[in-house]
Amino acid sequence: MSLTPMASSATPTPATKIVKCPTCGGPSVYAASNRFRPFCSERCRSIDLGAWASEEFRVPEDEPDPQAQTPDDQSS
């Protein structure tokens, strides 16, 4: 049995959350130390930004119901 003091790396630290990178699916550290979070790298972040800029991603728009009338459309 050794009587040496515990190494500093053995002290409890908060758990590091690992998430899936939205671009490549690889592991990504979700912490303030990762300036690209939730992405794993600058490359993945840039790919995602480029996809939005080129309109590959779009927020879906609900088609208006042609049968529905708004109060402004009603004629008296």
From TrEMBL:
Chaperone found in the keyword field: no
UniProt-listed InterPro entries: DNA_gyrase_inhibitor_YacG, Znf_NHR/GATA
Example GO molecular function: zinc ion binding
Annotated binding of Zn(2+), by residue: 21, 24, 40, 44
One Pfam family per UniProt: YacG
Bias kind Polar residues: ranges: 67-76
Superkingdom of source: Bacteria
Keywords linked to the UniProt accession: Metal-binding, Zinc
Swiss-Prot/TrEMBL GO biological process terms: regulation of DNA-templated transcription
Details of cofactor binding: Binds 1 zinc ion.
Start and end residues of each stretch annotated as Disordered: 56-76
Keyword Ligase: no
Cofactor(s), by name: Zn(2+)
Entries under PANTHER family matching the protein: DNA GYRASE INHIBITOR YACG
UniProt subunit comment: Interacts with GyrB.
Record's function text: Inhibits all the catalytic activities of DNA gyrase by preventing its interaction with DNA. Acts by binding directly to the C-terminal domain of GyrB, which probably disrupts DNA binding by the gyrase.
Record family assignment: Belongs to the DNA gyrase inhibitor YacG family.
UniProt protein name: DNA gyrase inhibitor YacG
Organism from which the protein derives: Melaminivora suipulveris
